[in-house]
Amino acid sequence: MKITAEIKSIIRDESKLKAISNLVLEDCFVVKNVRVIDGKKGLFVSMPSRQNADGKYSDICFPIVPEVRTQIEKTVLDAYYEALAKEEASDSEKEKDALQV
Asked: How many angstroms separate the CA atoms of 5 and 36, rounded?
């Protein structure tokens, strides 16, 4: 299955939420608001969810095949690390430019 991820925003504060992403499945279906969370065992991907009447959260959509879940996690986390690297390179370039002025 072809899965691509686009990081929409990187969160730089102290919260557990690190990024928000969109997934595109087979170039024909989009899943919005997939989150990168910093948990006790490291980063993981959380699918969009909603709060039930009892106050608990349930995923709105989710993979039912373990291999697809693994592929989604890898794709989103790879996109997250790539976006972080680009942001850091951009910040570094801006610092260099500021020093030259």
From this structure: 12
Q: Amino acid letter at 40?
A: K
Tell me: the pLDDT tens digits for 7-44? 999 998 889 999 999 999 999 999 999 999 999 999 99
Determine the Cα angle at 76 with ends 71 and 77, to 5°: 100
**Global pTM value:** 0.84
- Of residues 40, 20, 42, 44, the one with CA closest to residue 32: 20
Question: Which stretches does DSSP call E strand in 40-93?
Answer: 42-46, 49-51, 57-59
Contact 78, 21 (CB under 8 A): no
**Cβ neighbours of residue 36 under 8 Å, at least 6 residues apart?**
17, 18, 19, 20, 21, 43, 44, 45, 46, 76, 77, 80
